[in-house]
Amino acid sequence: MRLLNRDDWYDIGRDLDWTLTYVDHAEAFPDSWSGNGVVPAAAWDAWDEPYRVTYHDYVSVQREKEGGAHAVREALKRANIFHKLDPAHTASSQMHMGTTCMVEQMAITMQSRFCRFAPTPRWRNLGVYGMLDEIRHTQLDMAFSHDLLKDDQSFDWCQKAFHSNEWAVIAIRNFFDDVMLNADCMEAAIATSLTVEHGFTNIQFVALAADAMEAGDIDFSNLLSSIQTDESRHAQCGFPAVEILMKHDPKRAQHIFDVSFWRSFRLFQTLTGISMDYYTPLHQRKMSFKEFMMEWVVTQHERTIRDVGLQKPWYWDEFLACLDHGHHAMQLGTWMYRPTLFWNPNAGVSRAERKWLNSKYPGWEDSWGVIWDEIIRNVNDGAAEKTVGATLPALCNVTHLPIGAHWDRHHVSKQMSVYKGRTYYFDSNVSKWIFDSNPERYAGSTNVVERFLAGQIQPMDLGGAVQWMGLTPDVMGDDAYKYRWAAEYKSPVPMAAE
Ligand code: MN
Ligand code: MN
Description:
single chain; Ribonucleotide Reductase, subunit A; 2% strand
């Protein structure tokens, strides 16, 4: 039997659609799920996928990828590579597993919503492949972490994290609940496909993969690269959707973009920023977080958003300022609250590391060095317990990140809004703007401090909070190098190093 060439049947296959007679179209495709809004039905004829894929092609390519990823996994399992890794780097992979695995799982649901409710059969068709991609990503994270459970219980958090109240996980869950599970198809196309997947996953999956490879963690690097090949493909489904929305409702498109860009940036800054600039061993760093952001997000994503007709977000200058500082603030905060983490954070401020930080971020010493000096004095005086935060920091009602953690220490501003009698606090005027533009959307959630004040955390101290977050002594974070890095500060700076 002769098979038709793909191009002879592809257009018919992807346009499989029919006029509904038993139910109203609006009932089968409710606006609250499709997000179609004011876009006329005929406009969807212009939706064209940027890549052509058939089920047959998809399965054979994915089969190869899976084979490759698991072959490396098996070989490295036998080589027992985990014990040879630098403990600071290990923190990056544990953080990644705990904060990303369930996001991949949530993405399955989001993609399955495209399969069912997207306004054109072409997009519904591609949603199937996106869904299968995300199932693969979740399972890769689980398999990788399961292999390492025997070496380190922190990998249990690959599965556990999203079922806990760990504060960083709450911040991530809040965002992805909002832009993956709560979003209609149009919003998910802009917030997730275009912004998170196209704009930001490169930094987590390309930059971190390069650093992991340098650090000798071939298994983790290989897993990240395998996942990224899927992300860069299915993220492209966002473009044709954005182009159509830009023609019919550009204000809505821009608003979704401005909100999701800020929220994604703040999370990636918190996770990837500290992984790259503090956890990756100094001699293995390829690029600073800022350099990577400038090349892969600012330059490339800027071009992309211009191509689809979007403007840069109105807060662009503040975003650039935050790029210099926010992750240093988050590094200080996460290290000081290390018992609330499920990995062992590296301080990353030895003399050599500090020199590197100052060369990449000229304001670093002025803003952060002085605080680290105080920490170092306490560590060297044998009072490491004084370097652990005793009370909870004020948290933002939009990002759920600490207030005062988006700029340098000279720019701590108090932003608040009152809505229906309750006062909400924000980490920046951008987060306040997000809240004010749609308060009903954010008003219902409570952050960790509010739950603490409501008496949900008992006893009302850091010990009670850590227990409430689900952290057990075997995974609770402590300094990755057991404070050995601070010892060199006991002697005065050698002249040559000045
Ligand atoms: Mn994924
Ligand atoms: Mn994805």
